[in-house]
Specification:
The chain is 41% helix and 14% strand. The protein has 409 residues and is of the alpha/beta class.
Amino acid sequence: MATLDLEFVRSQFPAFDEPSLQEQAFFDNAGGAYACLPVIVHLNRYYHQNKLQPYHLHPVSQDAGKQMDASYDRLAGYLNVLPEEVHLGPSTSQNTYVLAQAFAKVLQAGDEIIVTNQDHEANIGVWRRLVEQGIEIKEWRVDPITAELDPKQLESLIGPRTKLLAFNHCSNVVAHINPVKAICEQARQAGVWTVVDGVAMAGHGFADVRALGADIYLFSLYKAFGPHLGAMVIRQAMAEVLGNQGHYFNQAYRHKWFVPAGPDHAQVAAAQGVVDYFDRLHDHHFEPSKDISQRAERVRKLLHDAEAALLPQLLDYVSQHPKLTLVGPADYQRRSATVSLLATEFSPQELAAKLVKQGIICAAGHFYAVRLLEALGVDPESGVLRFSLAHYTSQADLDQLLDALDRVL
């Protein structure tokens, strides 16, 4: 199997050549990853050459529309879905808000929605607000010790009036990876639709959404090396149930159904840059292949294996340090490359501030997972200190982080 060529990878990210970022180790990828070069090139090209209304008669306008279409088509290939099932909105929070309004027109008073307390608020709050319209909310709660969801408890929560289950692929704080495929299958057998928040997972490799079986799958492109957009896969059958949420005269344009504000033309056009990068990554490490599923799987494994080489070192350090407490599972095989912790002598903000002075880019807070932290007995006001790796994280970066922690603690 191919081993990630880190020098090649970093050459695809201008941030690593930025003078102001030199000697800085980047561990805030869960908040937003560095943008890859092809995304920046596409965005720059659009603003220079195509900054006008797309899809009109002028050749420049036609080219602008083709660039946007290419993003939907090419993202769909790596996600293993149809191009018309890909929707690009302002953010995942905005996308879930639109979804909730759409479901409100489909559901009836007394119908039930199951949410977790493990999720980012974007996939919790919008559904909870539907209680104002008579929708019943059930909560699938994490174990207060392990912070994990027990799939066995789901069976007792699903009832004859349950219509929707909203849960995450992976927590953005405790990083536990849920068995999405099995959960979606359980829900489907009960006639329950699924909305899966994949934001904390996408930066570690795009999911095969068709294989997972989710009716709706959400993630943020800016946390996966792309522009600041929220990507949303809505399977065709689900879209037909929900219907057009945009202007009535846009009924024929599926990509406008769930983006009422209209698409950000330049950023949509630039989104294909993520696929450009993945293609470059593939062709640098493997023999060229026209099989998009094979390409996607190979790239996914490259990203995973690169992170898996570093993650155990950080987990072991935190787990064994007498002044630190790991929040979430210690087994790197059951989690993503995001590590949250608490310290005995400093608040998360105090420790983060000290690490920043040591050249560590990190963050502290609740990261919109307030209900999860409350369930774990952690004060959301102070939250946790979070380090998040990506495939471009180097051993030198990790050594710099561990040395900085040694000095500060």
